[in-house]
Amino acid sequence: MMKPWCLTSLALLATPTLAEETLQALFGSEQSVTIATGRAHASRTAPAVATVITAEDIRRGGFRSVVEALRLVPGFHQGLTSDYGANLAVRGFSSLGSGNLLVLLDGVAQTDWIFGHPLSVLGTIPLEVIERLEVTRGPGSSVFGADAFSGVINVITRDRVEQGQLTLGGGSDATAEARLLVGDATEDRALVLSAQASTSAGHRPTIGRDQLSVIDAGLGTAFSGAPSAVETDQRDLGVLLKGQLGATRALARLSRTHEALGAGVLGVIDPTGLRTRETVEGHLAHTLQFNPRFGMTLRLEGAQTRLTLAEATWLPDSALVPEGVRFDSGAEQETWRLRADGRYAASPQHFISAGLAYEQLHYRLDALEWLGLTDLETRARSGLGTGTTVGLGTGLGALVTALSAATTPTETSGRRHLYSAYVQDEWWPAPKWALTWGVRLDDYTGIDQQISPRAVLVWTPEPEWTLKALYGEGFRVPTVLETQGGLLPTYQANSELQAERLRTVELAVEFQPRPALSLGLNVFRHETVDQIRLQNRGLYAEPENVGRQVGEGFEVEWRWTLSRRWLWRGWYAYQSNVDETTGADAGYSPHHRLYASLQSQWGRTFVNQQGLYVGDRARVAEDARAEAPEYGQLDLLVRHELTPQLSLQFDVRNLLNSNLLEASPGTSLPQDLPLAGRLYYAALELRF
Description:
Elements: H1 4-14, H2 18-27, E1 32-33, E2 41-42, E3 50-54, H3 55-61, H4 66-69, E4 76-80, E5 86-90, E6 102-105, E7 108-109, H5 118-122, E8 130-137, H6 141-144, E9 151-157, E10 165-171, E11 175-185, E12 189-200, E13 206-207, H7 211-219, E14 228-229, E15 234-245, E16 248-260, E17 274-289, E18 294-315, E19 325-347, E20 350-365, E21 369-371, H8 373-382, H9 395-406, E22 412-430, E23 433-444, E24 447-459, E25 465-476, H10 480-484, E26 500-514, E27 517-529, E28 531-536, E29 541-547, E30 549-561, E31 566-579, E32 584-585, E33 592-602, E34 605-615, E35 631-643, E36 646-653, E37 661-662, E38 673-674, E39 679-687
Parallel strand pairs: 6-9
Antiparallel strand pairs: 1-2, 3-8, 4-5, 6-7, 8-9, 10-11, 10-39, 11-12, 12-15, 13-14, 15-16, 16-17, 17-18, 18-19, 19-20, 19-21, 20-22, 22-23, 23-24, 24-25, 25-26, 26-27, 27-30, 28-29, 30-31, 31-32, 31-33, 33-34, 34-35, 35-36, 36-39, 37-38
């Protein structure tokens, strides 16, 4: 029988007062967290440092993608790659393709085994079907395995639809968007259908220098197209169908994205390149409840993802090279996964979870095909033409030779197999104390076995106080690109790579002195082992297990309902990471980030004024440029309920029209990336 103190504490944490219910209706509230252990916990007492982003948070923040919604998470930085793709950095960790972060969809890993970019597999999820985002910082490999390195994001979709919804929006840069959510449900079955389609011409930022500018300066040539405005247009489509019949659940979805390449995948202004990403995915799960204490869920999961680069530019058209030099490449992965997860309640104070899984990956890399390289080689042998004083027989000639060697004459394919098992124990050994520990074993084809332990101690001395001590380890498996190559020229694969690992120790305190005010503080320290680091070989880059990164930092969060009309929420995050290989700052990730949102409700009108500050960003050791510029951005959102079924939203981004620059990652581009100026967006939402 559960002790009286435990029942009292649960009641205090789970039962809001009438005043709190009113505030929740106005501003939303945090939900339970399942990502920490697989079981639902109140977010304050969950054995993890977690942030819950509700559907209402997304709606009232004006966020139009999962990446934008992550602005609400301390320690997450929404950076950009040189081709204006998302490049998430978490607590000072960033990598080619954001491979240090695991993204889940309803608990299913969205792993990009080829390039290491989980957001490309996730693609476009219709916003209206998202019930909440659960985000943890720090390693989570003891539960989720590979890539749960510096953080885990679980995108949780709705099981039922209480009210249909149609949203039509548009704004600056020829942006247009349509979103639909419909569904039907009875007591033992439910069906949910959601779709989203959008298009935008992009803000066409001007790039003053690219990688070819560096070559031109050294060889006296004029290959670069800089300065030039670059293409950032994009078209997205996402469709998701979800059903439930008794204890059986199923999900099927399609995501497709077409996007221009901006400043290029090689750091070269790309006026012609186009990237296409497509994911087709399905899940099937059945829950067996053998008795009140023991249950099991069986899952079958499959996905196919295709990435294509068409006419990606290495040399643009110019007087010296009239036809330019471009390349086509592509890759495809198909994954199948069988999982069995069991849960056993040994007592009201003791829960045990365990699981087994088998995963198979089949991948194929297209032959990298050059367009115009043969003509350039021919011209290199005879010089660049009349009046040209610099030939290609030395510096540029050697680079042309290296690019020719990078071409894969035939497509390559392969398979990977993964066997995994985990066990997790949640135990309340004494009043006010909870201990969660677990360990997972992962056995990959061609990679050493990985063992990932985790332990969390939670102490609740008083209902308004929660203290947590956490230790965890995470790992990241090398991608196909890193071990096999074939997708990008000037990149040399390394088949001897091993997984990189992370160890983290963290202390967290949460304090709620009254229902209207919540405060949180967490302090962390981490270090990596066998970190994969790109080595500059002159004409190409090669990854090696030579890195070691040591870092520390802290994050402060607050949520304060100032009155019945006003809510103030925000966070401040600090991190400092040193690359022990070079003895310098690990670079790219900002040391300081601050976010604040002031929300108010005036009758049927809601107003959100939010701002973000990004400051003190060092470069990587190989980059001789000065620190990246700091910046601050203010946004304004106004939402008015015209009727109970119809609302109008108006959103202004970069309200002050400031000239903002996002740091370019690594040395891929010799200048920083201009962000968009003031943007307008309006949306009409119909509920039926």
